[in-house]
Amino acid sequence: MGTTPTARTHEEHLGHIVFITAAAAIGGFLFGYDSAVINGAVTGIQRHFQVGPVETGTTVAAALLGSAAGAWSAGRMADRLGRTRTMQIAAIVFAISSIGQALPFAIWDLAIWRVVAGIAIGMASVTGPAYIAEVAPPAYRGRLGSFQQLAIVLGIATSQLVNYVIAQLAGGDVNNYLGPLQAWQWMLGACLIPALLFLLFATIIPESPRFLVAVGRVTEAHRVLREVEGDDVDVAARVGEIQSVLRTERKATMRDLRGPKFGLLGIVWVGILLSMFQQFVGINVIFYYSSVLWQSVGIEQSQSLLISFSTSIINIVGTYIAIALVDRLGRRPLLMTGSVGMAVSLAAAAWAFSAAGGTGEDVALPPLQGMVALIAAHVFVLFFALSWGVVVWVLLGEMFPNRIRATALSVAAAAQWISNWLITVTFPSLSEWNLAGAYVGYATFAVLSFLFVLFFVRETKGRRLEEMG
């Protein structure tokens, strides 16, 4: 039997939604790619510039300070210029920074270009989820919102695979030359390709219907809503609903986020703390420093890059699990399940690293503890990916009231980047001081994240954005 015209129309409509959502999520791909590309390059940077753990941690984490600044400003920029125009600007800035990162003449020069790249990533991290939430029909919003995290994990996996290939072409040493540049420079310069793809797709996707209504482009809003919600939806009523919400509000500023709870609205604090817990469990230690970590326990440089890639595959698998379940089970159950799994696996990793012997580059684990550390790292990534990795981005895109969404998302995303920076910049020194102690700290935050969701996070599954508040 053939498909009916209605079914074919629904498939075409859903296919269009998936396309524009995936295009917007390429900003997440940039985030993931840049986050993990430094993992392969960090050894080369240390050797080339002859720097220690403090300088290394500062340079790796420099992008995160830029990301906080980019996220902080992106909400207002997106409200003023539009979601797609802001994404285009982010793509251009990231492309320029990719060239700068590949050609640094000093460690501080590389750090500056990392900051510039971070600004672009921060802008995309706010604009992408907000755009996806605003174009996605409520029935699909959780799954489509998950595209942001899926793009991040695909970016991580892609960059680690590229790092491995480049390292192999350079004879297994990232300080070897490939033509005019060392291998680690090619790793950083390869970020240019996804940046140009993001620019291309941000140019061809439609603007958010809520932004179009807000600036008086109602005819365009009708067209976009018909494209994304289908012909069987009363588009005029949907536009009227958006207009009704917009009439009762004014342009949000940081002043609108003020409230009685420690100076901010309660919902804003929930967004900030969700962002902080997502980072304080230490997930980016795995993606920024895993190759150095595995080298420190006796695994060769090229093989450590391959193990790092395997964690990315686990990350992708977990993300697909979350996409399948986020609209069925809801946001809270996934978050709490992930918190339990992360706490157990991080505690196991802490136990394994407590048996480490030696110092500096001569650290080694006994065979049993080495195997436990590898398994625990992969289990941790799996539970993070199927829960906090996906659901936090979904919630940040949908949990805030319309009138403050972009501004509140900016604050929450900035908190996420600052938290990421704190974890990233402190890990090299913490690992030299007490690697097991660092993982005990991350496990503690995983336990606290469970309690936070249990008592403070509300379910948003199936609710219209206009109902949030």
UniProtKB/TrEMBL annotation:
UniProt record similarity statement: Belongs to the major facilitator superfamily. Sugar transporter (TC 2.A.1.1) family.
Main location: membrane
Record-level Gene Ontology MF annotations: transmembrane transporter activity
PROSITE patterns reported in the protein's UniProt record: MFS, SUGAR_TRANSPORT_1, SUGAR_TRANSPORT_2
Places the protein is found: Cell membrane
Protein's recorded name: MFS transporter
Bilayer topology annotation: Multi-pass membrane protein
Keywords from the UniProt entry: Cell membrane, Membrane, Sugar transport, Transmembrane, Transmembrane helix, Transport
Transmembrane annotation, as ranges: 14-33, 86-105, 111-132, 144-166, 186-205, 262-287, 307-326, 333-353, 373-396, 408-430, 436-457
CC terms in the record's Gene Ontology section: plasma membrane
Major facilitator superfamily (MFS) profile domain mapped to chain residues: 20-461
